[in-house]
Write a structure and sequence with these properties.
heterodimer, A: 264 residues, Rossmann fold, 8-stranded mixed sheet, 8 strands, B: 3 helices, binds adenosine-5'-diphosphate, binds magnesium ion
Chain lengths: 264, 88
């Protein structure tokens, strides 16, 4: 199989990029794929703690690019899953410590060894974004159902296009069925009417994400987690399976509203 | 009747309708500003089409997006030099 270099991006910060990289990467490795997750958020190292691998870091992405160490020395092997690796971000460097050309060369190097190279993109549209997308074949845009996040996602679509990534896929995170029901949150259809992208997945707002992050164990490994199930579905879709979207079973039709009006 | 009921029921809707409406408006502007040469390309095409019917002052052409709270309009001011003769 040809390998895939996938960048997870968003524009707006805090919408779930790092969480998504950790869960997709772990989920793919669980299915037997060779996966490396690259933390491209230089200066704001995050993916290591979400994965529970923070105590094992010796070298980082910038060390590799500057040839302070060999690539193999910087790759951290996950303790739970065979074939899952992390390339951590530098913590004490600036975003311009690397250039897009160097990032592209690194991705092509990783491509030789892995089925999936998954890049955790920093927020924003500056140098860090340009680095992260430079070596990518495809992109996942993460948004939440909020005006500012969707607006930034739309901006990212244009910037990806300019970088030659023409068909980004959409992941809508932190959906709150209770709020949608009350008419206080945009639903999947509202968001994708506006963005018009291929939908990769929808993730509920779920406290198991916070619990799993506390523990350093991605929710995708937790069979009881709704968000974990949503991520397992996404992983299956990336692998070419046709998985239906989680049914968000809301009563939003006419009779649902009538029922709500009469409080039943 | 059903329609009327539906409207009442919809009007009790929450803040998401505002969210959708505001997003649509802001993205009209974002996309027009961000796309390379969007306005230039639009002007060139307008000139080409309108010139079939009248002679216009291309330098005096002014095309902008004009918004209020609930809508955005494309406003074009196109000075005419001369009308072409119609043969219909
Ligand atoms: N589906 C979710 N449900 C609940 N909390 C979430 C969800 N997705 C992300 N979070 C929380 O939101 C915060 C930001 O997520 P993160 O993945 O770090 O975003 P980013 O990398 O885009 O900045 C984290 O504290 C994370 O635990
Ligand atoms: Mg992050």
């Amino acid at each position: 199989m040809d390998s895939l270099v996938l960048v997870v991006t968003s524009g707006k910060g805090g919408v779930g990029k790092t969480t998504t990289v950790a869960n997709i990467g772990t989920g793919l490795a669980k299915r037997g794929k060779k996966v490396v997750m690259v933390d491209a958020d230089i200066g704001l190292r995050n993916l290591d703690v979400v994965m529970g691998l923070e105590n094992r870091i010796v070298f980082d992405l910038v060390d590799v690019v500057e040839q302070q160490c060999r690539l193999k020395q910087a790759l951290i092997k996950d303790k739970r899953l065979e074939g899952l690796y992390l390339l951590p971000a530098a913590q004490t460097r600036e975003k311009d410590a690397i250039q897009p050309g160097q990032m592209k060369a690194l991705c092509d190097e990783l491509r030789k060894e892995f089925d999936y190279v998954i890049l955790d993109c920093p927020a924003g549209i500056e140098q860090g974004f340009k680095n992260a997308v430079a070596g990518a074949d495809e992109a996942v845009i993460v948004t939440t159902p909020e005006v500012s996040a969707v607006r930034d996602a739309d901006r990212i679509v244009g910037l990806l296009q300019a970088s030659g990534i023409t068909n980004p896929k959409l992941l809508i995170n932190r959906i709150r069925p209770d709020m949608i029901k009350k008419g206080d949150m945009m639903d999947v259809e509202d968001v994708n009417d506006i963005l018009a992208l291929e939908l990769l997945g929808i993730i509920p707002d779920d406290e198991t994400i916070i619990i799993s992050t506390n523990r350093g164990e991605p929710a995708v490994l937790d069979q009881d987690s709704h968000a974990g199930e949503a991520y397992r579905n996404i992983v299956a879709r990336l692998e070419g399976e046709n998985v239906p979207f989680m049914t968000l079973d809301f009563d939003t039709g006419f009779f649902g509203k009538l029922k709500k009006m009469f409080g039943i | 009747m059903l329609d009327f009921m539906n409207r009442i029921l919809r009007d009790d809707g929450g803040s998401k309708d505002r969210a959708v409406e505001r997003l649509r408006l802001v993205l009209i502007h974002d996309r027009a500003k961000v796309a390379p040469r969007f306005m230039e390309a639009l002007k060139e095409d307008l000139i080409a089409v309108i010139s079939k019917y009248m002679e216009i002052d291309e330098d005096g052409l002014d095309v902008t997006l004009d918004s209020d709270e609930t809508s955005t309009a494309l406003v074009a001011s196109i000075p005419i030099r001369k009308m072409k003769r119609s043969y219909d």
